[in-house]
Amino acid sequence: MANLNRREFIQRSVKAGLISTSALGAGWWLRDTTPPELEPSARALDGIPDFSRSPDDGPSMAIAKGTDRADMVRRTLGALGGVNRFVRPGDRVVVKVNAAFASPPAISATSHPDLVTAVVTACRDAGAADVVVTDNPINDPASCFRLTGIGPAAEAAGGRLVLPTADRFARVNLAGARLIRDWPVLVEPLAKADCLIGLAPLKDHHRSGASMTIKNWYGLLGGRRNVFHQDIHTIIAELAALVRPTLVILDAVTTMMHNGPTGGSISDLAQTGTLVAGIDPVAVDAAGANILGRPLNQLPHLQQAADAGLGTLDYQSLNPVDVP
Fold first, then answer.
1. Using an 8 Å Cβ cutoff, are 63 and 75 in contact?
2. Taking the chain, what is the end-to-end CA distance rounded to the nearest angstrom?
3. Per-residue pLDDT for 53 more than 60?
4. Chain centroid offset of residue 216 CA
5. Are strands 195-205 and 247-256 parallel, antiparallel or unpaired?
6. Residues 178-202, mean pLDDT to the nearest whole number
7. For residues 282 and 119, what is the distance between their CA atoms, to the nearest angstrom?
8. Chain segment 132-169, per-residue pLDDT in tens
9. pLDDT for position 264
10. Are 79 and 59 in contact (CB under 8 A)?
11. By the 8 A CB rule, do 167 and 177 touch?
12. Within a 10 A sphere around the Cβ of 125, how many other Cβ atoms?
């Protein structure tokens, strides 16, 4: 190398760059893009119960309009048959929030503390013995829970904040999955729970098209989960099979229409004044896509989940209750 002149050095560098780029391109184009062979019965082999409730017990979805999240939670839960349909006296409840970023509530990148307060309070009023609020944020967990207001809101309402420490993860295999195989998942809070409620803000997402209730389960993954970004729709569809919640609530009171998932500007937001609650996350997310203005053909993960029998895209077929 010491004897190379400048021209030879540049030529060799360009060739090396072309070879590296070609290898990366080949890896991308040769990757397996077929959807996973998921079925409604696909379950994790370790630690994650099926928390879902039968639609025979009452309505499957309710949609409320307004701006007061506490009032909207009361109205949607009432329309679905009351909180006691989902939370029974003595139950141990896990509330999975989106606390991914150390950003204030006004940005709408994370679960709103008012929604957290309302849901934890409702669970406590129903007689829950324990209400755990948890997530595995991208940024420092303690800072995220504090700066988003989620941590203080949860604790003030009688909830218990559980941080994603290493001892709470276990390696999980999902039947029929291509990506969730021997992967660390935040299972410890779920393994001890009777009821699982997901709280997600509705927002744009530059990779998946939208971030809603199913994408919210991404926060249960540990490890270097950014490796899934190149196959984002498959991982979200697999999460729909991995996590079968009791109830999901999609917060579209203020929606991040652009520059998601982090946003950062009030100009990214729109006041859409809607809260969607239901027992079918695929249907709830289909309703969210409509609010966000995303055609379903731009959200392949929802189609994959529906094709696997994990829910319906035709949310109107569930006769959602429009809460006055």
1. no
2. 76
3. yes
4. 1
5. parallel
6. 96
7. 21
8. 999 999 999 999 999 999 999 999 999 999 999 999 99
9. 86
10. yes
11. no
12. 12
What is the DSSP secondary structure assignment for residue 272, as one 8-state letter?
E
Neighbouring CB atoms inside 10 A of 258's CB total 14
In the predicted structure, residue 34 carries a pLDDT above the cut 80: no
Bridge partners (DSSP) of residue 174 are 44
Confidence tier at 14 by pLDDT (50, 70, 90): very low
Largest CA distance in the chain: 81
Rounded Cα–Cα distance for residues 178 and 30 (Å): 15
Residues in the chain: 324
pLDDT reading at 297 higher than 50: yes
Residue 95 and residue 197 in contact, taking contact as beta carbons nearer than 8 Å: yes
Cα four-point dihedral sign 311, 49, 139, 144: positive
Q: For residue 140, which phi and psi values (nearest 5 degrees)? A: -50, 120
Average pLDDT over residues 236-264: 96
DSSP state at residue 91: -
Residue owning tokens 């540049």: 10
Q: Which among 213, 261, 258 is positioned nearest to 236, based on CA atoms?
A: 213
Say whether pLDDT at 18 is over 70: no
Are 200 and 111 a contacting pair, CB within 8 Å?
Answer: yes
Write 266-273 long-range contacts (CB < 8 A, 24+): 266/106, 268/204, 269/107, 269/108, 271/67, 272/202, 273/65, 273/66, 273/67
User: Rounded to an integer, what distance in angstroms lies between the CA atom of residue 312 and that of residue 296?
Assistant: 12
Using only C-alpha atoms, the chain has a radius of gyration, in whole angstroms, of: 21
Nearest to 43 by CA among 170, 141, 180, 161: 180
Can you tell me the distance from the alpha carbon of 132 to that of 146, in angstroms, rounded to the nearest whole number?
16
